[in-house]
């Protein structure tokens, strides 16, 4: 058997030079006349170790990282193909603390297998969930998903099974499964990682959703900023079709299901489900009023399941191992595991999948290892551009939908951005308003106008013009946006703004330095 | 000097793109992507042809084409450089990166260099938040931008 070398093709690894490493490796192999296979796997998610190269040895896999192209020759000299010692040696990847502490259910294969090899997928437990589902009655599949306690991982946390039940119960000649892969929140990359690293799990999850609800067509709406994810998903869909996983007879059963990959066009608001549906229909990505719910009148007016990538990718393990197995993880009403994405100014940035319940402090300090700059942590934003800023005083908050809501925050898509003490929270609050102004779909006034006015009022605050009046005005404006906007863009922009004002009041006081700088 | 094709040619090439995608469900976005891939931007002349083929009003097609940030009204420079300006990149100094790049290229965001070498754009998240600050040069992703990486990018677009 020739050696196997794994070099991630994940965008994050590519951004850190994985392509050059792969080229250098191929060249060394040719020059040394060694027969070895290079597999472009996904990333396991430890971006502080990427590009992390792995080799298959007699004792199992051995990892090296972070590898630069210039290190490759040295790795060959050190005999890394058989696990030789080298300053970049990390040993058995499963034993690296960052991975050993995780509970990988949704991301069980990500970074381990060849993303577009269905054989690899099946050898690692893939399709077991779908095989069970094709032998079940639709209602039983829906019940199993409901019992698992799975809630929408896109941010809203709505019970997935209940959504599916509504679609199942709504009679129609055509139904759709739409996967929301418009992952626009800063600090989030879980959807991208799964699409680039284990695309079949998403295809499997969507197919199960189709069988469960009677839908025969699925769309994956991927943002255009993710060209690598688009390419991998297209390839995987093609492979799945050829293998009969998708098509007129899913795995030889009477169920038909097919998937089409669609690419967004740079509008953040299309991550909102109704706006996404309009975009898929070929319209402006303007938010729709609810009701009617998409589950009753969704894509092209037909009953539609619209779920986030991670929600759908979590379904196969639930079908395979059972609702009780999945439900056993977590706390309160937040069941199962959540892929936490630790990003920004952090030492050990990456994706960390674990049961709900870790405290914010454990995530930031212990797993994340504090800031990359080495300075003290000032704030962390949880849940993307529409999530609240948390100060260190709230680091005892457990990672749980309800616990975060109690403290005027949200989990969102589980992205965490860490800021050190150089962060200016007034600037971040202004950015939240600016971002909302850039990305507003324009349908409702609180969001369209409120965001621009909010930016202006915060500018006045920064300039020290009537600070008390300005502060009262921005608070009032946030209230209007929160309760008067149609969707989460206008409705949640107040979270970062108000949390910055509440927890970091010193940054909003006019300082001589700030006034002088204007 | 105009390198833009004549309008009859635009109509013909647009029609070819449309014929490939017309049967998709909700074909407008894929068609606009196809047109932009064909011409490097979405020409005004194409909108008419698309409206006609899909039985939409010109206003509807214009409305869609202008709603999305991706569709260009003019051709971009030879290179397109996107700098991520979202929160995670901000926490790692994307402001300073943007300032340096703007100075080195002599253009601001949404501008194209006079020699047509490069178009500079902000982007709100490339999903490379654990290796911030990040950028995308002609579809190629770059993480942990430092001075050396910025110099390399500038040299690349000037080549």
From TrEMBL, chain A:
Its cofactor is FMN. Residues 426-471 form the NADH-ubiquinone oxidoreductase 51kDa subunit iron-sulphur binding domain. Pfam families: Complex1_51K, NADH_4Fe-4S. It comes from the Bacteria. Keywords: 4Fe-4S, Iron, Iron-sulfur, Metal-binding. InterPro entries: NADH-UbQ_OxRdtase_51kDa_CS (IPR001949), Nuo51_FMN-bd (IPR011538), Nuo51_FMN-bd_sf (IPR037225), Nuop51_4Fe4S-bd (IPR019575), Nuop51_4Fe4S-bd_sf (IPR037207), Thioredoxin-like_sf (IPR036249). The keyword DNA repair does not apply. Belongs to the complex I 51 kDa subunit family. This is NADH-quinone oxidoreductase subunit NuoF.
UniProtKB/TrEMBL annotation, chain B:
Belongs to the complex I 24 kDa subunit family. Keywords: 2Fe-2S, Iron, Iron-sulfur, Metal-binding. This is Formate dehydrogenase subunit gamma. The keyword Iron applies. PROSITE patterns: COMPLEX1_24K (PS01099). Its cofactor is [2Fe-2S] cluster. NCBIfam families: PRK05988.1 (NF004638). It holds the Pfam family 2Fe-2S_thioredx.
């Amino acid at each position: 058997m020739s050696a196997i070398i794994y070099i991630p093709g994940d965008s994050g690894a590519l951004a850190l030079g994985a392509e050059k490493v792969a080229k250098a490796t191929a060249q060394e192999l040719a020059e040394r006349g060694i027969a070895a296979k290079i597999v472009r796997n996904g990333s396991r998610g430890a971006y502080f170790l990427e590009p992390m190269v792995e080799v298959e040895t007699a004792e199992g896999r051995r990892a090296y990282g972070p590898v630069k192209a210039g290190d490759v020759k040295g790795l060959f000299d050190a005999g890394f193909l058989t696990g030789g010692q080298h300053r970049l040696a990390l040993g058995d990847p499963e034993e690296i603390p960052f991975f050993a502490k995780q509970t990988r259910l949704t991301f069980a294969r990500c970074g381990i297998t060849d993303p577009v090899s269905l054989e690899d997928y099946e050898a690692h437990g893939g399709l077991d969930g779908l095989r069970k589902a094709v032998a079940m009655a639709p209602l039983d599949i829906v019940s199993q998903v409901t019992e698992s306690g799975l809630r929408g991982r896109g941010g809203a946390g709505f019970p997935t099974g209940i959504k599916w039940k509504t679609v199942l119960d709504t009679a129609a000649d055509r139904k759709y499964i739409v996967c929301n892969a418009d992952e626009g929140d800063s600090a989030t990359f879980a959807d991208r990682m799964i699409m680039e690293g284990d695309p079949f799990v998403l295809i499997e999850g969507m197919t199960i959703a189709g069988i469960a609800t009677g839908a025969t067509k699925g769309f994956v709406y991927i943002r255009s900023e993710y060209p690598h994810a688009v390419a991998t998903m297209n390839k995987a869909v093609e492979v799945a079709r050829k293998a009969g996983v998708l098509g007129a007879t899913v795995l030889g059963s009477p169920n038909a299901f097919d998937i089409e990959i669609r690419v967004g066009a740079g509008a953040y608001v299309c991550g909102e489900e109704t706006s996404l549906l309009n975009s898929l229909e070929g319209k402006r990505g303007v938010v729709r009023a609810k009701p009617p719910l998409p589950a009753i009148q969704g894509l092209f007016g037909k009953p539609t399941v619209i779920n986030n990538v991670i929600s759908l990718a979590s379904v196969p393990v639930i079908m395979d191992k059972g609702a009780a197995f999945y439900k056993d993880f977590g706390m309160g009403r937040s069941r199962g595991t959540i892929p936490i994405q630790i990003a920004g100014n952090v030492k050990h940035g990456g994706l960390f999948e674990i049961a709900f319940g870790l405290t914010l402090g454990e995530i930031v300090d212990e797993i994340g290892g504090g800031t990359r700059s080495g300075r003290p942590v000032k704030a962390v934003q949880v849940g993307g551009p529409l999530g609240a800023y948390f100060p260190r005083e709230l680091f005892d908050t457990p990672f749980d939908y309800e616990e975060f809501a109690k403290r005027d925050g949200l989990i969102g898509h589980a992205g965490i951005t860490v800021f050190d003490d150089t962060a200016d929270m007034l600037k971040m609050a202004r950015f939240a308003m600016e971002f909302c102004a850039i990305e507003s779909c324009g349908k409702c006034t609180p969001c369209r106008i409120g965001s621009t006015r909010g930016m202006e009022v915060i500018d006045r605050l920064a300039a020290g013009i009537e600070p008390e009046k300005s502060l009262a005005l921005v608070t009032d404006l946030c209230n209007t946006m929160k309760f008067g906007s149609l969707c989460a863009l206008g409705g949640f922009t107040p979270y970062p703004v108000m949390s910055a004002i509440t927890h970091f009041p010193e940054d909003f006081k006019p300082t001589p330095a700030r006034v002088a700088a204007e | 000097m105009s390198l833009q094709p004549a309008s009859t040619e635009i109509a013909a090439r647009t029609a070819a793109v449309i014929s490939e995608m017309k049967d998709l469900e909700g074909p407008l976005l894929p068609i606009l992507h196809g047109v932009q891939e064909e011409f490097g931007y979405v020409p005004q002349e194409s909108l008419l042809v698309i409206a006609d083929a899909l039985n939409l009003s010109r206003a509807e097609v214009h409305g869609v084409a202008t709603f999305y940030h991706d569709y260009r009204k003019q051709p971009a420079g030879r290179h397109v450089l996107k700098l991520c300006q979202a929160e995670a990149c901000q926490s790692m100094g994307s402001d300073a990166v943007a300032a340096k790049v703007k100075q080195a290229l002599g253009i601001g965001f949404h501008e194209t260099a006079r020699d047509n070498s490069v178009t500079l754009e902000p982007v709100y998240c490339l999903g490379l938040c654990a290796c911030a600050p990040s950028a995308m040069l002609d579809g190629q992703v770059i993480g942990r931008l430092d001075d050396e990486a910025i110099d390399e990018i500038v040299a690349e677009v000037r080549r």
